[in-house]
Each structure stands twice: as structure tokens, then as C-alpha cells.
Design goal:
alpha+beta, five-stranded mixed sheet
């Protein structure tokens, strides 16, 4: 099967949001927590696709509309630091491949394409949060764990 990867359009926000919801459920997030975040995430994704803050990449069988998986690139405006002299960074998110299409190299192709989008944009620093299932792929691509921390404010 020949797979084509294309850039997402604003009308693809529902597909991306559905993949995002499935990703979080598969990682063990409670269904009600995913449901509460789903609507706001869909609105953000649609707006970000329109204004360019988010580049979505979607994989489909050549000539078909069904989406087998996707990944997103979110642009971050941050000051240069010891890792990059560029004031724009990339964050990969919403990486998802439908279960029946896993193990065929599709995730690797999607991430490779996302990294090419980053290179074309002049970005030299890319980060992400890896699920346990995704961590081996990212490590093979050269990603390294960092000491990032998080606090959720009430």
C-alpha cells in the first residue's frame, strides 16, 4: 500500500482531535478527563491550523481520504539559549497511528516529515513528550530525555 503524507488543512481539525483523544485514552488517561479537554483542544487545533501556529501532517493511502495517522508541529517563540541561537523552536505533538497500521514504519515517516518541516523553517531545537510506546522511536531518531518539570496550577 502506497502512503501519502500531506499537510493538514483547518477542516482536518476534527480528525486530529480524534487522534489526540485516542492517544490519551491509550496512554491511560481517564475517559472523562479526555472528554473535558476534547472540545477546547479541537477549537485550538482549528484556529492554530488557520493561523500557522500548528502544522499538521496526515498519512493516508494514496488517493484516499481516510487518515491512518498524523503528527503536529507547534511553533514556540522562545529566546535563544545554550541549545540553540534561534528564537523559534518546535514541539512535536499529537503523534498517532491507528492501531491496525502500527509496526509498518508509518510513525517514523511522519516524524521524519515533521523534522523536515522544522529544518525548512530554520528551527534547530525540537522537543516532545514521549509515551512509553513512542520513546524507542524517538530515541532511535536522536531525541534525548531532559529534566523538564511541570506544575499544574489550580
Amino acid at each position: 500500500m502506497s502512503i501519502a503524507i500531506r499537510r493538514a488543512a483547518p477542516q482536518d481539525a476534527t480528525v486530529i482531535s480524534g487522534h489526540r483523544d485516542a492517544m490519551f485514552v491509550e496512554m491511560g488517561t481517564a475517559q472523562e478527563v479526555v472528554a473535558a479537554a476534547s472540545g477546547p483542544a479541537l477549537a485550538w487545533i482549528a484556529a492554530a491550523l488557520r493561523d500557522g501556529r500548528y502544522v499538521g501532517l496526515l498519512a493516508s493511502p494514496a488517493g484516499e481520504q481516510v487518515v491512518l495517522g498524523g503528527v503536529g508541529v507547534c511553533w514556540l517563540d522562545l529566546p535563544p539559549n545554550t541549545h540553540t541561537t534561534v528564537d523559534r523552536r518546535a514541539y512535536l505533538l499529537n503523534m498517532y497511528v491507528s492501531p491496525e497500521f502500527r509496526g509498518r514504519g508509518l510513525a517514523r515517516r511522519l516524524v521524519d516529515e515533521a523534522l523536515e518541516v522544522c529544518r525548512e523553517s530554520g528551527v534547530t531545537a525540537v522537543s516532545l513528550h514521549a509515551s512509553d510506546a513512542g520513546r524507542p522511536l524517538y530515541e532511535r531518531l536522536g531525541f534525548v530525555a531532559t529534566n523538564e518539570m511541570r506544575l499544574t496550577l489550580d
